[in-house]
Write a structure and sequence with these properties.
Blueprint (H helix, E strand, L loop, with lengths): L1 H6 L4 H13 L8 H9 L15 H13 L8 H15 L8 H10 L8 H13 L4
Length: 135
């Protein structure tokens, strides 16, 4: 969010000053250039192409991963599950909320979406147990 805001700022100086002012409100007071640089350089920027437009690289990969954990008869539900998760994130982000895997699965189940591991994955786990690879 901060990086999106910075990309659309009128100028870089205003953005840098806003960050400096925010840091100065915390213990330690004023922020010199070296401290500001060390703070900004600690950021790791991850770019995800999850836009709703067609052709999204990462959204396609997410859909494939969702399908991979669903039984073949439920593959068509992948789009609805993804839309549900995006909507849930949209609800949580503005309020600084969080969700666990368990709470997301519970909500998906309550809304009628399939969850769980595809039967083929269970066969793989059973095969690993037979060979002593799984705990």
């Amino acid at each position: 969010m901060v990086l999106k805001w910075s990309a659309h700022s009128a100028n870089r100086r205003d953005f840098v000053q806003t960050i400096r002012d925010a840091l100065a409100k915390h213990p330690g007071g004023t922020v010199d250039d070296d401290t500001l640089w060390r703070f900004l350089r600690s950021f790791v920027i991850l770019h995800f192409d999850l836009g709703l437009e067609t052709g999204s690289r990462d959204a396609g990969q997410v859909m494939d991963r969702i399908r991979a954990i669903l039984p073949p008869t439920e593959h068509q539900a992948a789009g609805g599950i993804w839309d549900h998760l995006v909507a849930k994130a949209g609800d949580l982000i503005p309020v600084g909320g969080s969700a666990s895997r368990a709470s997301l699965v519970q909500q998906l189940n309550a809304d009628g979406y399939p969850t769980g591991i595809a039967p083929t994955a269970w066969r793989d786990v059973a095969a690993q147990k037979c060979t002593g690879l799984a705990g």
